[in-house]
Amino acid sequence: MQLLRSEKLKSLFESLSSPEGIAVINPATEEELLRLKPSLLMELDEQIEQCRIAQQDWSKLAAKERSLILKSWFQLLVEHADDIATIITLEQGKPLAESRGEVAYGASFVEWFAEEAKRAYGEVIPAPSMDRRLSTIKQPVGVCAAITPWNFPIAMITRKAAPALAAGCGMIVKPSELTPLTAIAVVDLAHQAGIPKALLSLVISEQAAEFGQLLSTDPRIKKISFTGSTRVGKILLKQASDSVKAVSMELGGNAPFIVFDDADIESAINGLIASKFRNAGQTCVCTNRLYVHESIKDEFVAVLLDKVSALQVGNGREPTITLGPVITMAAKHRLEANIDQAVQEGAVIINQPQKLPGRFMEPVLLDNIEQGMAIVQQELFGPVLPIITFENDEQVLAMANDTEYGLACYFYTDSLKRIIKFSECLDYGMVGVNEGIISTEVAPFGGIKESGIGREGAKQGMDEYLETKYVCLGGIN
């Protein structure tokens, strides 16, 4: 970690290193960055108890006091942006430009919810009789747990922790064991800003199932927020149900990207490239399957091939690189198996991807895809793009909705009637219309169907960590 500028962060990582600990690997070079001492299951009980005690004091602070502390955290994230971006690229692999973008995105949630802390409004309700007064107040849920993934190691933490803290809650975060260094840096900056260490703490462990079970069943934890696969989300939901916890689940996706015959082709391709190949296709909202109207298919694919061939695959620390590695060799092998199966079912690879060493993969474009193929129903999570043609609106609407997932979708058209129809009829929690990048702290992020429960970001993200209490004051007369 000698690339870091901050001596505090260097010292922090040195103090946490352990020869027998969890190895953090650079996916681009396969080099070991650091070994971290893992958290112990037997220590989690005390960690939860300390968080519970700290949360009681934190919730008694005025909202403006919490807001000021969160603003200090935001400022520290901005000041350390270069170091955090470097850490992200080293342990996660995305190009440095994308890492810088993620730091800005992650910090934006801290800034946004610092302001929302002061807006947890209750309401006065007109009473049915004059001898009573009715009102509601908003109160923090209590101690929360967050389980976050490796693909956005800062943003997935701040998008959960910032609203929790703003609402007056405490939080224990279990980041992915693949990207713990970003989490350590971000939480340490929160502590420097004045957030008590017990109030916001980390669990670093490869025992994901064991810690997940404890966090989702302990009665002192009142809410669990998870971003990850639908399979794991269902397990956590079942475990949390025994104590009737509040839950937020941001789960798998299978985003369709529809290009109609009246679309601006250049704009649609730029949006597709941004949506599909950001973070090497390893985002829950990235395009998973492309639908192109048959009348423009040949023209569209010809331009797309040129754009894709310009993407540079390699180590994200190099300034010209636009596509980093996939996160593990297992992920690469899974993607290769998906491609092989699709080809066996009749798909055709239409570009000329080279076989690259290590965890690197060049983009793969698959043509001659039918809706019934297995690859259409799988969340690919990599730089593989199936291309499907369609004839009319009703056909493509049915194909786009033909999935158990419902996180994000995209379509490009110049027709106002079509914009209204498809915005309302696509069964997804988020719709990008003539836009391939839709995530922002000011809008609610989340899905429907098996893509999740709840929303993150915007004012709705704050509500996820607040309980509404109704107060009936009688005997006025």
UniProtKB/TrEMBL annotation:
The record's annotation in Pfam families points to: Aldedh
Mind listing the UniProt keywords for this protein, alphabetically?
Oxidoreductase
Which residues are annotated as active site? E250
Write down the superkingdom of origin: Bacteria
Q: Where is the Aldehyde dehydrogenase domain?
A: 20-471
Quote the InterPro entries the UniProt record gives. Ald_DH/histidinol_DH, Ald_DH_C, Ald_DH_CS_CYS, Ald_DH_CS_GLU, Ald_DH_N, Aldehyde_DH_dom, Aldehyde_DH_Superfamily
Family from the record: Belongs to the aldehyde dehydrogenase family.
The record, for PANTHER family, names: SUCCINATE-SEMIALDEHYDE DEHYDROGENASE, MITOCHONDRIAL
- What is the protein name stated in its UniProt record? NAD-dependent succinate-semialdehyde dehydrogenase
- Top-level taxonomy: Bacteria, Pseudomonadati, Pseudomonadota, Gammaproteobacteria, Vibrionales
